[in-house]
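It would be a great kindness if you could assist me with a short task in structural biology. The full record is reproduced below for your convenience:
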Amino acid sequence: MTVNPAGTSRLGWYVRRAALMSPAEIAWRVRDQVVRAAWTPRQVTRGQLARKVTAPARDLAFTAVLPPGTAARIPPEARLQVLAAADLLLRGEWEALGVLRTDLERPDWFLDPVTGRRSDPDTYAFRVDHRSEERVGNVKQVWELSRLHHLTLLSAAWFLSQDERYACRVADQLRSWTRENPFLSGVHWTSGIELGIRLISLAWIRRLLADWPGVADLFERDPLTVRQIRWHQQYLAAFPSRGSSANNHVIAEAAGQLVASCAFPWFRQSERWRRRSALLLERELLRNSFPSGVGRELAADYQCFVAELGLVAAAEAGAAGHPLSQQTWDRLCAMADSAAALVDARLRPPRQGDSDEGRVLLLDAPAANRWPALLALAGTLAGPMDWWPRPPADAGSAIVGALAGPRRPGANRPAQRPSRFADAGVTLLRTSGENEIWCRCDGGPHGYLSIAAHAHADALSVEVRYAGIDILADPGTYCYHGERAWRSYFRSTIAHNTAEVGGRSQSAERGPFMWADHARAREIEVIDDGDIARWTAEHDGYASLDPPAVHRRSVLLDRASRSIDIIDEIEGGHQVRLAFHFGPEVQVELDEASAALGWPQAGAARLELPGLLRWSLHRGETDPILGWYSPGLGCRVPAFTLIGRGVCAPGTPLATRLEFVEIGTSPGPALSWGLSGGRVSNVPEIRAEAK
């Protein structure tokens, strides 16, 4: 029996996991285990390739090509950026999930660059425990390279330049991957989402290299490549994600199967695969998103990922003459419209829930924020609304748009930018114009499905930005596998801008991707009458305490005074920890129950804290973990955190006020702002009763 770093047995994990499944799902999973055992003889090892892979019985052709003149549609700046990134790849340099790799001239497909561990490439896939860092290393790092995004980028560089070096590197590495990863051998056959994304990459590598003289020998005339494309689709047809695992994974599996069956209709099962994957994709897109378009996982970056999967697959299906339904396009447009409404002044999305920076199709130089690319793609395929922000032009949207043809606009799209998504419990309070104040309030469900895999215990949390700078910040994700204590911290209630009651999180964690008890939040009131916007919500995550406790919070934005009031009411007489976390650019100086905030971009603020609590300032602490911010998966940096401790007296609210003052304005004789040693000093008293 293997043991994970937290010291609990794998058997214990399976017991907890099974407790969150329906009887039907348990039956499906038993069936899957039987089939996986029966498929053992179908494994192909590297030593068996020569005798198990034969030439196709008939000539194959690739016809899903881009229209002439597509390359000329690429904006010049985007073209230069693609070529610059491709040149770094030729030198072997590539950043993946916060790690700069320099070994991509000849990549080792099984090496984790973080731990240095290398998994066995010949182990039967269904005997590989990809959750075990001791056996495979950090599996996200291992899987990321085999999504082949670096090869779609090199293919785009060839498409734009006709430079032979790019195509030759693609050919060398694609042949390396197909030889090193035969059917059901090794870690790259353990997760369907990886196969789905890889199929999308393969289709676009073939498409972008269509005019390269060696492309047919790399694809349709190469027996191993043809067999790999078939193996991938056989796997996805046999082992779809179901039940409590049918989140973004099932979308990626269906999208990959649909793209591959349209682009490579070379097999007798291709038509059946296409029909089934299209139906699965359409059904699961509706299930995985609210009617408003917000993703049901309530993990913002997964909304972007799912929307991109849907748009790329829809473009492929339409180009193949099998368009998806209008209902599906309506939902894709809703996802795009909600994304356009949620971003801040810098086109940055909320930092709600998990993020692994997942990409679907990489045709541009890599960027940490994928939302501008999503908006560009959606705008090309479906058309932007007048109120949308305008993302920069890029290569990906132009190229995919050329394949897709005419736009497919959705119905009943919002004529004005929405600020509330009631079905998801997401409300934005914001100002307009220069130095936007952007405040996200969380009053929705905990997450999606029984395990809510990518949720955080963040009910009633707020996120506040000033001109796109994180002031009151969501902590991010940092890690998925390994480092269990860090995984737990970044998902916990105390890591978010909300209240912890009774010394525990609102929702009960049962594993790195599993929650047993879900806090249920509900919005009580949302009012916006011009100068004043107010939001009130509550959750029941502490109803099991003795006595039961209820947390209710109101957030008020006064646009005229550029201030935010946060009023917390917590019943039950329990110990409370109220947390406020700041972005890494913000410096904080605490003076009893008030804090001065400052950041380099000529901004400052005053935070007046509830005097009933005892306040302390933390930054970059590890015992216990407190005061951290994760810019992206695999990265963490110290950041200031304020913690208030005490007991909330019945009928006595905890009032917090955040008031912004722009340095360089004339605030009047009572205000005198200065900076000292990187922190704000000589900050005046700015006090007001909570409204």
Q: What stands out?
A: The two ends are 58 Å apart (CA to CA).
